[in-house]
Amino acid sequence: MTKIRIAIQKSGRLNEESLQILKDCGISIDNGKDQLKASSRNFPMEVFYLRNGDIPQYLRDGVVDIAIIGENVLIEKGEDISIAEKLGFSKCKVSLAVPKSVKYNSVKDFEGKRIATSYPNTVLNYLKDKGVKADLHIINGSVEIAPNIGLADAICDIVSSGSTLFKNNLKEVEVMLTSEAVLAVSPKITAERKELLEKLQFRIQSVLRARG
Ligand code: PRP
Ligand code: MG
Predict the structure, then answer these.
(1) 98 vs 120, 136, 176, 201, CA distance in Å?
(2) Mutate to test the pocket of ligand 1, among 96, 164, 172 (most ligand atoms within 8 A of CB)
(3) Which parts of the chain span the membrane according to its record (predicted)?
(4) Chain centre distance of CA 22
């Protein structure tokens, strides 16, 4: 029997709510969180637990058919990948921030500055649009520490509650984009699996309506 292959975040902010929405759709996943793959008992679905940043490439290659992923990750790494549904959870911003003590006037202040980020394409596109050139330092986590250790003048990262910025004495000065979890689709999905996707989408839409 053909199954639809879905990628969800292995660990982190999206993991729990991704499993919850599948559950609310009546899809039970046999607990396979320690394994990287699990199956559903009552829906033709296989779940792959993957690292966020790897998911766009898996979709592109058609190794998975669909994924629950942050829109911000697609904007950074998967502009070619289409979105079937916005899922309404894991809302966040991707923002530029500077030390609280810095007087900030406008985006032009970033000219020639060192910015630490895990979202280089997003920052570059944003600044290019404003005619600003900066020097990027790409790091994969704990980005907000960079100004405190003298690695950068500013950072660009996800802002959700704002508490990471606050704890590191930073202030948000530019919101580059807002994001939420989305259902993304591989450009290589087969017609047969597309039918399964439609069934899933039908259930997701009624769950989202009920959530209001
Ligand atoms: C994420 C993100 C921000 C923070 C934003 O980091 O990179 O640092 O959460 O959330 P907040 O506004 O609610 O504080 P995470 O904790 O996932 O760790 P990492 O960056 O080291 O991967
Ligand atoms: Mg972080």
Answers:
(1) 17, 14, 14, 41
(2) 164
(3) none
(4) 18
- What are the pLDDT digits (tens) for 140-198? 999 999 999 999 999 999 999 999 999 999 999 999 999 999 999 999 999 999 999 99
Closest Cα to atom 5, ligand 1: which residue?
Answer: 159
